[in-house]
């Protein structure tokens, strides 16, 4: 079984006297920086001039250009977009890294695929929350935490693991659970999850259901409520108590349809596609494709995003949500 850590396994004193530079102040940067500060850690933020800089200053942080923040810090948590990390690392981080510093990531992409190769004289670790930044913040404010993964890629000081655990405690993750992993395992499972199940899988499943109903002549509004709106209710039940709790809450008719029809929707073809997607992640093909896409201003990403924004389901959804009070804020 995988090694698990809780509050009592992590010691915040490990971070005493150390300055943490959070590089980037987007989804993860903001959530992690605010939680660390509330946990009593010394935090500075590294950025370029722009919206995030403004936001971090308004939140009361000392904000510096990336190189300046790195010079001030013993721990450098890189929370830039994955596709920008290597370039920023080369010019603004690597030249200013001190011996014994701890270089930290929340996703293993750049280390695992060799885009960032740190010097042997620093620690390289990962603390990866399994949830978006606003949840990292909100759960912390509520006295809870989002689970996280930790991994050690390089342990120069002999303290890399303790620092990662303490950092995980600082962001509130040990209040939930922290799991031990490797950069390879985190990177590959994270990419697979978002592609095949969470983002890619779910949106494609919803679209397929919506289009099937609309093509058969049913009202798009009906189709929307049925296959998209209700998705959250079902997923919340699964989140709270697994398949069992969800199946306890639905009708017997729904349960029979679920168990007998579901496997026909996700059949052998889907298993084969998932296998292929996983292989492209493992052999670096996906990483190469995504990094190259970024060097030419993302033509594929832009075209596909636009096409989905114009999809009927988005128009119908916008209109229907306009009538529902829970979406008015
Ligand atoms: P975001 O896109 O939300 O934020 C990126 C931040 O980096 C922004 O503050 C942006 O500022 C800043 N930035 C971008 N380019 C530069 C640059 N050249 N120099 C200085 N600052 C720059 O990123 P995320 O928080 O989504 O992702 C950060 C990391 O966390 C990634 O490794 C990701 O895989 C990981 N992660 C993300 C999760 C999520 O839910 N979002 C979940 C778990 C891990 P500006 O306003 O100037 O553009
Ligand atoms: Mg993920
Ligand atoms: Mg991811």
From TrEMBL:
Keyword annotations from UniProtKB, A to Z: Amino-acid biosynthesis, Branched-chain amino acid biosynthesis, Magnesium, Metal-binding, NADP, Oxidoreductase
Q: Which GO terms describe its molecular function?
A: ketol-acid reductoisomerase activity; magnesium ion binding
Q: Where is the active site?
A: 107
Any idea where the KARI C-terminal knotted domain is?
A: 182-327
Q: Which amino acid positions bind NADP(+), per UniProt?
A: 25-28, 48, 52, 133
Q: Name one Pfam family in it.
A: KARI_N
EC number of this enzyme: 1.1.1.86
SUPFAM superfamilies for this protein: 6-phosphogluconate dehydrogenase C-terminal domain-like, NAD(P)-binding Rossmann-fold domains
Please report the name of this protein according to its UniProt entry: Ketol-acid reductoisomerase (NADP(+))
């Amino acid at each position: 079984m995988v090694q698990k850590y809780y509050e009592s396994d992590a010691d915040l004193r490990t971070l005493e006297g150390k300055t943490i530079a959070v590089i980037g102040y987007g989804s993860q940067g903001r959530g992690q920086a605010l939680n660390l500060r509330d946990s009593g850690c010394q935090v500075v933020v590294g950025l370029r001039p722009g919206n995030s800089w403004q936001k971090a200053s308004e939140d009361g942080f000392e904000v510096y250009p990336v190189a300046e923040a790195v010079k001030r810090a013993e721990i450098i948590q890189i929370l830039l977009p994955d596709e920008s990390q290597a370039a920023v690392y080369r010019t603004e981080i690597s030249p200013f890294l001190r011996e014994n510093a701890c270089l930290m990531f929340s996703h293993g992409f750049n280390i695992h695929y060799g885009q960032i190769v740190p010097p042997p004289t620093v620690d390289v670790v990962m603390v990866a929350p399994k949830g978006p930044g606003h949840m990292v913040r909100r759960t912390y404010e509520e006295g809870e935490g989002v689970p996280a993964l930790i991994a050690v890629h390089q342990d120069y000081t002999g303290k890399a693991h303790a620092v990662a655990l303490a950092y995980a405690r600082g962001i509130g993750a040990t209040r939930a659970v922290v799991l031990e992993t490797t950069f390879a395992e985190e990177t590959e499972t994270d990419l697979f999850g978002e592609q095949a199940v969470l983002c890619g899988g779910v949106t494609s499943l919803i679209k397929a259901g919506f289009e099937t109903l609309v093509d058969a002549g049913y009202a798009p509004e009906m189709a929307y409520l049925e296959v998209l709106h209700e998705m959250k209710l079902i997923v919340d039940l699964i989140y709270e108590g697994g398949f069992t709790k969800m199946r306890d809450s639905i009708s017997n008719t729904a349960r029979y349809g679920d168990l007998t029809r579901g496997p026909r929707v996700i059949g052998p073809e889907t298993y084969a596609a998932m296998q292929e997607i996983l292989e492209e992640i493992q052999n670096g093909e996906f990483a190469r494709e995504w990094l190259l896409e970024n060097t030419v201003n993302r033509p594929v990403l832009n075209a596909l995003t636009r096409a989905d924004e114009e999809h009927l389901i988005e128009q119908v959804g916008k209109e229907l949500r306009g009538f529902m009070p829970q979406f008015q804020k």
